[in-house]
Structure prediction request, 394 residues.
Amino acid sequence: MKALLAGASSWVEIDLQALGHNLEAFRTRLAGRARLAAVVKANAYGHGVEVVAPAALAAGADLLAVVSLAEGLSLRRIVGPQVPIVVLGHVPAAGFPAAVEADLELTIYDPDAADALAAAARRVGRAARVHVKIETGTHRQGLAGEALIELARRIAGREELELAGLSTHFADIEDTTDHDFARRQLEAFLAGSREVRALVESAAALDHVACSAAAILFPETHLDMVRVGISLYGLWPSRETLVSARERHLEDFDLQPVLSWKARLAQVKTVPRGAWVGYGRSWRAGRESRIGVVPVGYYEGYDRSLSGRAHVLCHGCRAPVVGRVCMNMFMVDLTDAGSVQAGDEVVLIGASGAERISAEEVAGWAGTIHYEIVSRIHPALPRIPLALSPDRSA
Ligand SMILES: Cc1ncc(COP(=O)(O)O)c(C=O)c1O
Prediction:
């Protein structure tokens, strides 16, 4: 860890014990035979796929899910040839040969894509495993009705294609405590799955619909596999999900945040009363103030909307962000944080002393969701795995 940290002005710490705890929480909750796919797209929701993917597998994940061909190829290099990898997002037909070579399972929702994938599989000389996406009301990816039947027929008619799964994605499961729409989506999915299975030989195909919120709240959505993203990282999908979990008396289901984001102060200076700080002279010192410069900006993923709104932690104290967040740095008012020097640690997300700033809190300041806050932490910042040992010898 020391070598990784040397010279880094900002870094992300990954608590592998917390990751293992969260995975185990889902394992304990999973109904029957359901498998667990760890969703590690978007650089493992910003946590660092190179650190998270092997740790999730070691903690018992059965599959890994990514969003694109590029993510799939790079994950294949990280985890080796044996681990099943599902690509949830769009892969253009030009990428099919590379996907088949790397044994990536693709999500498809277009009969012509099935033909193109079969042709690529023939050329490469190995079967392509596909997951059919069923449209149930999110109106994002997926097919329903006649188009779904046509896709099923094409898959059935191409021996190069193996049906590995059938899936859908809920539109309105995190944002509400009324889950009627999700229930209707589940019914539509089960009907669509039966239609496809009537046409395609599919003994091994997995039905999968559940994201974190569904997996936590509704065992009837677990089916053959769940796809858990945000809560693997110890974050509740939303306040509504937490409320719904309480209503269902799931007090024992507990999640531990995996990520902390830290930096070292680049400079600390005293500015006189009346001095302006930052672009646009957007903050003015009402008293003589100690200003710290944090070497992180919107390029690194600390959103500009946090200007004048957020706090960081320094020596266990909250210090407000003052002035505008710049491309690669922002300023904080450390006047009430005691004796602070350049080189001292500040915590953007995580704990310091008795204080904690959660990704949810940062999202609230930025007017967005915590999914966006963590997934946009720049991939170039080092991800430091914290040791699994109880003393966490960092
Ligand atoms: C298709 C699909 N499945 C599963 C997930 C995981 O959702 P969550 O992070 O809410 O668990 C996502 C996330 O966006 C997704 O797009």
About this structure: The mean pLDDT is 95. The radius of gyration is 24 Å. The chain has two domains: 31-247, 259-386.
